[in-house]
């Protein structure tokens, strides 16, 4: 493990009793100190379970968890949650309704009194409250605060004991869109300012891409891809990641020499998702924003609809086989519904995905008795 890793998971597998498949399957990842990992994936893919394993609320059947180079789970070791030096923030804030802001924040400190020697609980909670911009509201009760303010209190409560790692489980999902957009960048700045490492779970791809240093995409318990936001967006490893993270269209394609043929034309392709250079059929990915539309009476794609989105147009297209495609263009491209168009795409942005890609390599066999 690298010197600066705050978290290292090795082959983590967790299957709940009576479940047909593991909620978390063979997950290995390393988070560097000070980094923010965005954990992204559809509902039920295992994000919360993985966070709870890191926090110590769930025990994996296989694999090891190391926090700050200390083994805390697996290989015969078990460190309980209160000794793991992690903080948690939940989607529903989970504040104590009968405690005011200052008391809610101080609660986290009372639990970890050992770490606050030399500084009073009052000072430490005032500092955390200032960090999240709530100074002056210390005497308010949760019901006297907006959703965004309540979530700031939850963040302050988690930050006050200065944990090595903060785990945020969809912290912004209950907030309306304006608050969510503002708060996500504030959360990132606060974490960076305090040098706190974090895992931020979300099912919103834009949220994950815009605030994370690393993004992990989960699918059915597996960590399908881990990389920088740019990596994940420009080089998705699988069709699943491409569909989840980018807005993309897929067309069946066959290799024709150095080109790939689809029902809407021949394309030069920048990348394959496999090392298998003999691959001769697959799914060709066209991202919505990478396609230019060129009116052409001889073309076989028809513009069915056009939506004005303010900054851009979204065009709805139909191929000869009846497949629907979506494309976004600048307002300079004004094409009438009913027009036939050719699709023009830079080869560097086109990828082919092998159609039969498995979910992930291998799921290890579980011990016969599930803990
Ligand atoms: P996510 O947070 O990505 O929505 P979860 O980690 O909550 O996903 O759930 C992953 C899978 O594990 C789901 O199929 C869910 O139903 C199941 N699961 C989660 N917690 C439990 C539990 N305590 N007992 C049984 N099954 C669970
Ligand atoms: Mg969840």
UniProtKB/TrEMBL annotation:
PROSITE patterns: ABC_TRANSPORTER_1, ABC_TRANSPORTER_2. One of its GO terms (molecular function) is ATP binding. Keywords: ATP-binding, Nucleotide-binding, Transport. Its main location: membrane. Residues 7-245 form the ABC transporter domain. It is found in: Cell inner membrane. GO terms for cellular component: ATP-binding cassette (ABC) transporter complex. InterPro entries: AAA+_ATPase, ABC_SmlMolc_Importer, ABC_transporter-like_ATP-bd, ABC_transporter-like_CS, Mo/tungstate-bd_C_term_dom, P-loop_NTPase, Transp-assoc_OB_typ2. It is an enzyme of class 7 (translocase). It is a peripheral membrane protein. Its EC number is 7.6.2.9. PANTHER family: SPERMIDINE/PUTRESCINE IMPORT ATP-BINDING PROTEIN POTA, SPERMIDINE_PUTRESCINE IMPORT ATP-BINDING PROTEIN POTA. This is ABC-type quaternary amine transporter.
């Amino acid at each position: 493990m690298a010197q600066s890793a705050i978290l290292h998971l090795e082959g983590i597998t967790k299957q709940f009793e009576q479940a047909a498949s593991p909620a978390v399957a063979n997950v290995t990842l390393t988070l560097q100190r000070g980094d923010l990992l965005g954990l992204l994936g559809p509902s039920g893919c295992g994000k919360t379970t993985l966070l709870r394993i890191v926090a110590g609320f769930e025990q994996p059947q296989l694999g090891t968890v190391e926090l700050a180079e200390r083994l805390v789970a697996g290989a015969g070791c078990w460190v309980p949650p209160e000794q793991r030096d992690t903080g948690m923030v939940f989607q529903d804030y989970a504040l104590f309704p009968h405690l005011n802001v200052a008391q809610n924040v101080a609660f986290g400190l009372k639990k970890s009194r050992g770490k606050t020697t030399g500084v009073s609980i009052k000072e430490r909670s005032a500092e955390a409250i200032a960090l999240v911009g709530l100074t002056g509201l210390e005497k308010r009760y949760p019901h006297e605060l907006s959703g965004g303010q309540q979530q700031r209190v939850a963040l302050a409560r988690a930050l006050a004991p200065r944990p090595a790692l903060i785990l945020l489980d969809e912290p912004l999902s209950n907030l309306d869109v304006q608050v969510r957009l503002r708060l996500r960048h504030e959360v990132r700045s606060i974490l960076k300012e305090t040098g706190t490492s974090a895992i931020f779970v979300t099912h919103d791809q834009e949220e994950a891409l815009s605030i994370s240093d690393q993004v992990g995409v989960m699918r059915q318990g597996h960590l399908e891809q881990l990389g920088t936001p740019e990596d994940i967006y420009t080089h998705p490893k699988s069709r699943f990641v491409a569909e989840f993270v980018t807005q993309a269209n897929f067309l069946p394609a066959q290799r024709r020499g150095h080109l790939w043929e689809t029902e809407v034309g021949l394309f030069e392709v920048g990348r394959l998702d496999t090392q298998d250079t003999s691959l001769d059929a697959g799914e060709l990915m066209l991202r919505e924003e990478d396609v230019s539309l060129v009116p052409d009476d001889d073309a076989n794609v028809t513009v069915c609809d056009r939506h004005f989105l303010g900054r851009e147009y979204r065009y709805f297209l139909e191929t000869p086989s009846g497949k629907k495609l979506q494309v976004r263009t600048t307002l300079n491209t004004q094409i009438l519904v009913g027009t036939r168009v050719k699709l023009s795409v830079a080869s560097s942005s086109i990828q082919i995905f092998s159609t039969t890609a498995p979910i992930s390599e291998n799921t290890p066999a579980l011990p016969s008795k599930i803990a």
